[in-house]
Amino acid sequence: MAATANREELGGTGQASEGWTVERVTRASRLNGANGIRTGKDGRIYVAQVAGSTVSAIDPDTGAIEVISPVGGPIVAPDDLCFDEDGNIYCTEITEGSVRMLAPDGTSRVIWGETPVANPITYHQGRLISGECFYGGRIMELDRNGGAPRVILDNAPMPNAFEVGPDGKLYFPAMATNEIWKLDLDTGETEVVAGDLGVPDSVKFDAQGRIVSTQVGSGQVLRLNLQTGEREVLADIGPGLDNVAFVGDRIFVSHITGSIHEIVSPGNAKPLVEQGFQWPLGMDVAADGSLLVSDGGFDYAIAPGGEPQLVGMLFSPNFPGWTRDIAAGEGGTWIVTTADGNVARWDPAAQESEVLASGYDRLMGVALAPGGAIVTAEYGTGKVLSVAGGNVETLAKGLSAPMGVAVAPDGTVYVAESGGGRVVKLAGGRAESVIDGLGTPEGLAIAGGKLYVIDTKAKQLVAHDLGTGEQQVIASGLPVGYPQGAIVKPLGGVGDMCGPMTMFTGVAASEDGTVYLAGNLEGSVLAVKPEGR
Fold first, then answer.
1. Are 143 and 126 within 8 A, CB to CB?
2. pTM of the model
3. How far apart are CA 265 and CA 391, in angstroms?
4. Closest by Cα among 420, 364, 418, 373 to 392
5. Which tens digit of pLDDT belongs to each residue from 6-38?
6. Cα-based distances in Å from 251 to 45, 221, 232, 233
7. How far from the centroid of its chain's Cα atoms is residue 156's Cα?
8. Are 139 and 131 in contact (CB under 8 A)?
9. Nearest-angstrom CA–CA distance, 255 and 299
10. In the chain, how long is the greatest CA-to-CA distance?
């Protein structure tokens, strides 16, 4: 199989222009998240990465990573994977609703393409079993030659990563009921074998026939002995755990945010790959100086000089949803745009959220106007919207794929028109060019009389003086967007969990002149500062 550079080799902080410096606020991520994991015949751990449309293999002893299928390659949004005896890899493509086979020679083909929210998959004694991760999903036996599948179980309660047990039955986590079920592959008969868990999202068996199961809600790794009823917490790694793999008797677990931990002994989990950002996306600077960062299904706050602290995730109470951009609101609230097409106000401390506007097409940037109105860009329709007092007003329409928005202290609205390669300001419902000749402008920010825009195609950060019109590239070669030359299919939605996961490269600026940007090519946050700051 052809390989390419892994994520940590794609990045680098770029180059600052004279008078500026550029540095990482957070380390680069080694993986684009970590979802399904499976041990190959070569003893390496193969990792499916939805966010990066990537499959990688990790040496369990050294942590060395090799990309097996890169972003822009044949596999899109792989959530789980398994092998047959010939070394073929089968991946569920969760946003595509398909199961794809990748052969050892690098060729690939879709085995079955009519399986919404395709997620769990396993192979056992010549049988390829796949499932759909939503309430009412199916568990099916697939024909590897492309014929129609055999439905084993219909209306399953959100099945996730599963495995055939020592008794020949399929054991699966029923996420919607917080239980583990077993399924007779021939008759379709089911039985609940465990309940009252921490939202299980994987079930695997160790060499002694015991279940090891990650709990996405609680962050615990549980070992269950079905003969004795004994339950043991092997580790508590944090909400967002995804899957389990064994290398001999060694236990490894994946976390959606990109870590792989080995459970060395009960209560002792050692990172093989450290946690990082899957993307990241939008960001803003809060009143206390903290940097607020959206990473899709996970949101973080970074205190000055501190490490990212998780403040909410998709399984947190009243989380507003897969978030794309952020504007810091009053009283510690976040104003966010979501993949479901919503504008919401979220209070992490109170664990409360309120939808302020809904039903829109791929909302991107968000900013607050001086009077408190919320400004956002609707990518799919080319509109710029203002949300205030329960009313939504169209400020402009007919723009080409608008993304970032920023509002100056005088109320002037600026928009990054990514499809038009320019930044415009809105005046009387019309768009007037401010910066032309850009590749793909995305995030915008205003501070200290300057407008900052990140160009993900040119991989440059541009500063524009709003008073004089002077323009300067202040950093270049930045780890943003996609790898040069890669043709990447945008990610769709995941059932009821989120809408299209269109990427967005955010920018935030503080009054001290520091500009923060989402280094989503390498999974980091960068700071570009005037020298001496």
1. no
2. 0.93
3. 56
4. 373
5. 787 777 788 999 999 999 999 999 999 999 999
6. 11, 10, 14, 13
7. 25
8. yes
9. 15
10. 76
